[in-house]
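Figure 2 data, in text form.
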Amino acid sequence: MEGRVLIVAGSDSGGGAGIQADIKTVTMLGGFAATAITALTAQNTRGVHGILPIEPGFIAQQMHVVLEDIGADAIKTGMLHSPEVIEAVVRQVEKDARGVPLVVDPVMVAKGGARLLESSAESALKLRLLPMAAVVTPNIPEAEVLTGLTISTVEDMTRAVDALLALGAGAVLLKGGHLEGDVVVDILRTADGEQLSFEDTRIQTQHTHGTGCTMASAVAAGVAQGLRLQDAVGRARDYVREAIRTAPGLGTGHGPLNHAHPLIATEN
């Protein structure tokens, strides 16, 4: 059930988020992952200790050579740290990948609190990238930045989804894991008004590093494989939930997920 996903995102040396999580996720869900790396990070479960940006022209070149040869059935973006990087990615998508569904994970802050998006890039993200997105997958803090709203209830989430759709995305998957409570609610709504709410009991754990990257890449894999968006999201949520539940417990901070759980289940 292969689907080609070009992932445009940063590298996480700790292996829990970023490109590393993206590749693992797409592969475990039966897709083919290609990459254009936007930044290198020195990172572990305790936080981001250093960032080395990649020159925008080289990011664009990575995208171009993949798209002209291998092609893509979906593109997933993650850490795009500056306005120049966002502009380079937008131009390359317009040049080489018109019509290819774009899954935008608006990465802004790492789990440990490190800023991964320059404040000057927020307007570029809203004005240039989001209108191109087939689906955008923010968490609560990211949605608050993008909309200017305070989100503390599920009703607030619904209002934020309206505001995010008004920015031009084809669909919004707003993830509610940052809200208080024992039940986690995610909301998926498309521009034509179709809405689904997904609810699950919260898994009490600190090992949630990379959940956003993993969710977006799992959705992108499903889109690349031709699944309906709601089915791609449903499968992605099941995959992420089991990856959290069976997390290996590595590190002394926010540990990584168990991305390989489908393989382990098959072996057993």
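Caption note: The CA atoms of residues 67 and 97 lie 7 Å apart.
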